[in-house]
Amino acid sequence: MNSAEPVDPPGGEEPELNRWRGTATDPEADRSRAEETTPEAVARLRRHSRALLADLLRPHRGRLAAAVGLLLAQNAAAMAGPYLVMVGIDRAIPPLRAGNTTPLVAVAGAFAVAAVTEYAARRGFLALSARIGQAVLLDLRQRVFGHFLRLSVGFHERYTSGRMVSRLTSDLDSIAELVDGGIDSLVLAALSILTVAGILLWLDLPLAAVTLFAFPFLFWLSRWFARASAGAYRRTREAVALVIVHFVESMRGIRAVQTFRREPRNQRIFVALGDDYRQTSLHAFRLIATYSPAIKLIGNVTVALVLCYGGWRVLGGRTEVGVLAAFLLYLRRFFEPMQELSQFYNSLQSATAALEKLAGVLDERPAVAEPARPVPLPTGSGHGELTFRGVSFGYRADTPILAGLDLTVPAGQTVALIGPTGAGKSTIAKLVARFHDPDAGSVLLDGINLREVADADLRRAVVLVTQENHLFSGTVAENIRFGRPDADDAEVRAAAQAIGAHDFIAALPDGYATQVHRRGGRLSAGQRQLVAFARAFLADPTVLILDEATSSLDVPTERLVQRALGTILRDRTALVIAHRLSTVETADRVLVLDGGQLVEDGPPAVLAATDGRYAALHRQWRDSLV
Amino acid sequence: MPVESDGDRAAPVAAGRHPVHNLWRLRRYLRPYAAEFAWLLVAGLAGTAAGIAVPLVVQRVVDGPVARHEPAGLLQLGGLALVLGVVEAALIFIRRWVQSSSAVGMEAALRADVYAHLQRLPASFHDRWQSGQLLSRITSDLSVIRRFLSFGVFFLVLNLTTYVVVVLLLIHLHAALGLLVAASAVPLLLITRRFGRHYHTASRRMQDQQGDVATLVEETAQGLRTMKAYGRGPELAARFAAGARTLHDTGVGKGRLLANTAALLDLVPNVTLGVVLVAGAAAAAQGVLTIGELVAFASLQLMLIWPVQSLGWIIANGQEAATAADRIQEVLDTPPQIVDAPDARVLARDAVHGRLRFERVDFRYPGASAAVLHGIDLTVEPGETLALVGATGCGKSTLLSLVPRLHEVTGGRITLDGHDLRELRLASLRRLVGVAFEEPTLFSMSVRENLTLGRPDADDDEVRAALALAQADFAYDLPWGLATRVGEQGLSLSGGQRQRLALARAVLGRPALLVLDDPLSALDVHTEALVEAALRQVLRASTALLVVHRPSTIALADRVALLDDGRIAAVGRHSELLASVPAYRALLAAEPPAGVTDATPGRTGPAAPDASTPDGWGLVRS
């Protein structure tokens, strides 16, 4: 770094790094509503995540039962090993000394059967459990994704795309890790512990009693771990989400990052966030680093006790050497899976924390809900009357944007909305597109409250084109077809031609089949606007809303677009928010908004002749022309 | 396939390279933890030794005190077993405690390095790579590597050691039986080799598909409003379902592969145990082996089951880590093309006059067949404001992006006061240039942080001046003033507000060169007039290159350059061009030319009388 470069003062680094994010206007910006931090909310979420798990597993009941059957078979076969060793030593060696090989052959045969059974059952079980696990993941992934799509724009603006990405990648990874790493081993270990406990009891009751002595310790230890790790993993999930949000945002804005030499500061922030994540992970890992050896300790102490006590019993002739040997072997099989169990318990806790996050998302009710009994919109031409009836709306409760707005736009009218920033122009557009529902009053299309219109009907009737013009990965044709998925190639081409986008598309390397890489990186902003217009043109809505949609076009192209839309939408309703008076002048009617109020309303020519705001703007615009 | 693949993905392992080559290259991230790793191995091996010792103690108990009826010896050996047990647990504790810190430390360091490298890679790289693929590398792939380097490698070493030690002990206990057990390593080796090969391919496929799914999610999150506006939820859900389904199928395939191998790995030690039992029983019957030895032999052999069984998972984990390392190295191995020359110099702000010259500049996007800019010759004199005008998609924004070197010229050169931009330090150049893009990029951070992006040292006065100039004083009225979080989260700003913040960012600290891409496009007429008046002052003090679409904004410029299909078609004063260049008139005339108003919509290029020229749709050539 050269001397001309600003360097952060080394002191004051810490508070600096915490301050960069600023304060969100919504205190709940960082989480879904279900994820409050009160103990009741935590318990409720836990319940919901369990219910979610049960719901996910329900369709697989049959396969689960089969898996458990295979598991039992495998377990039984695996348990036969040490037992057969005992039988071999106690029952087969003495006859063998006498020259009788039959018992040994029988034992060997049983051993072979056990080994083959274990092989087949294990193979079947693992394959089956992978199928179940993957099916559950697929189901969960689709549910969460589908739910994210249903949630309102308001939710997403609060939650941010990075966090959505984090939920659908990192959180699902952590559940997948459990699925891959062996929910099967979890069950198997638990089963083998139970079986071994049974065998131990059957082998030698007093020795088993000594073993049982370990149980309260195991129980107490596990409860401690469950509680501590649940909190720890929850924090891990939150920390990694922040890492992902920062990562996604800085990669998306890489041009700004590089141009403004943001790299060093971004690096410091990323390292700090990464460090938070490291700390929370470390905390979680240290819990398991304590839990797992503690289990081992209990096991080892028990083995030593059994060894002494068992040896003493053999000395006293109350039990056989073979029994002691088998007992000690089984004891290993008892505590060994306990180790595995602690490991998988750990994955389980991590997956549970992730599942809770997902349950929190699934608990979120869409603020803009699909009506229970949708009312169909009238079909045919001549429709598209928009009515605002006493509409009040604010993004936050304390700052209303619209207060009791009344407005009627007759079908087929083209209305230009103008007014200073914050006047509520875009808000009106968003309310018509039902990105939000009004706080009070109602927005009606052809006399039907938008709240009662099915989403599919509303989207067919109303299309909003903004400056944003997102292009999805895929071809140019696919992006245009986004407006009407059933359109054929000729219709796509016709739409592009009508809007004046055909020539530039035809000049692309693969024409309409050109892939728009990564959010249309290769198309200019103006070209993206053209594609977006072709999309809207193809969608052919009853009501078209243009929110600063032509800002990046050169004047002739803009005119071409307007004329094309004007023709196709001559009998449609249109709301146009534009800053160019050339656009405004072609409207049937101009609405001047200020502070959420309609201050002027009339045909452009009439308003221009008065001495109102529109007239002033009109004069300004005329003057600006050289 | 719902997602197109990226050009760079799935680069096959270079010929002659070992599959774990890239994983091995990551070893330097373990170096800071070398001491810890030594501890780990010592603790791990000692712990295992303690574990192995217990069955031997059991053998002594059975053969010694129990056989000879010595209660005192029993207590002694019992005590020994207890001590060994406690030591084993303590060693495991130490190992895991140390392991956890080195594992997450290594992961964090690697992640920070990947991020740093990504920040250095040029815009063209980011255009080409989907961000979901990058994201899955710094999350999923890194945690796979972390798991392997912390647990996998360790258990591989530990379990192999355990295996060898136990087999040696078995040979020591009984040579013939021991060698029999040793022979079982041959099938194990064959099974694991075959498995490793297949699993390698499967895990790479899975990781790439995870990246695809992440890309789909990221993209949907980005285009959410567009999706809502068209009600295309079902289509996107179907697209996602297809991606998720592919991932599912790969996952099931991987699971089957693992199931087959894991079951085989279970079978081999079991069969061996059976053979040992039969042979051992025969030996014991002949009196060559004591019963205690046989018990110890069998119980030692049972200790082999876990290391062998876990081999499947360790190898699976290792293969995943190897492919994850490949994916990460693909990024780290991409050289940043736009870097400081070895002798790059720093230009101080005060020493800059601000003469910006484009000399026969060509530009072609990497991988594209056609150039976007051809032989651009253009000079912006110190203090001059030059407006760049042209039809949509003619290369204006691309031209601007060459000034802060977001892209590198592919021919000719750009100079600032006679210095080739490539001879300047990147940081120095970018400090001299203030840029506002056509799309105002805001991050979910405080307003202040968004304004001062790379200049955390900017003081309150500078910030205030910049905000005033961009008519963005509204920022002070936000709920928490400049500390309010804006961007995607927290507060939705209107297009005009975002643009004004972006403009304030560009003019902050009065840069020597201003590069503004249609800086007033989203402003309402009233605000536009105010910003224009304020901009006029700034523009007097610096050299500026503006992209302009609207006739009203042209007034800001001293001269105008008309860009047509990547070439400079004309340069001059607005009034001159208006009078002498018909194409210019067509683009910027206040009133649409007669031919345009009367043209029938729906036909291509109605604005161009000679619609036969491929670029005629935006320009009138009459």
From TrEMBL, chain A:
Region of interest called Disordered, as start-end residue ranges on this chain: 1-40
Domain ABC transporter: residue ranges: 386-620
Coiled-coil region list: none
Domain ABC transmembrane type-1: 65-350
SMART domains attached to this UniProt entry: AAA (SM00382)
Membrane topology: Multi-pass membrane protein
GO molecular function, one term: ATP hydrolysis activity
Any one GO cellular component localisation term in the record: plasma membrane
Keywords assigned: ATP-binding, Cell membrane, Membrane, Nucleotide-binding, Transmembrane, Transmembrane helix, Transport
One Pfam family from the record: ABC_tran
Listed transmembrane segments: 64-84, 104-121, 186-203, 209-226
Domain of life: Bacteria
Subcellular location: Cell membrane
Family designation: Belongs to the ABC transporter superfamily. Lipid exporter (TC 3.A.1.106) family.
This protein's name: ABC transporter related
Organism, as annotated: Micromonospora lupini str. Lupac 08
UniProtKB/TrEMBL annotation, chain B:
Recorded coiled-coil stretches: none
Keyword terms of this UniProt record: ATP-binding, Cell membrane, Membrane, Nucleotide-binding, Transmembrane, Transmembrane helix, Transport
Main localization of the protein described in the UniProt heading: membrane
Residue span, ABC transporter domain: 356-590
Keyword Transmembrane helix in annotation: yes
GO molecular function (one): ATP hydrolysis activity
Cellular component GO terms held in the UniProt record: plasma membrane
Cellular localisation: Cell membrane
PROSITE patterns: ABC_TM1F, ABC_TRANSPORTER_1, ABC_TRANSPORTER_2
TM spans (from-to): 33-54, 74-94, 148-171, 177-196
Region span, Disordered: 594-622
All copies of domain ABC transmembrane type-1, residue ranges: 38-320
Record-linked CDD domains: ABC_6TM_Rv0194_D1_like
Membrane topology: Multi-pass membrane protein
SUPFAM superfamilies, sorted: ABC transporter transmembrane region, P-loop containing nucleoside triphosphate hydrolases
Name the record gives this protein: ABC transporter related
Organism name: Micromonospora lupini str. Lupac 08
Top-level taxonomy: Bacteria, Bacillati, Actinomycetota, Actinomycetes, Micromonosporales
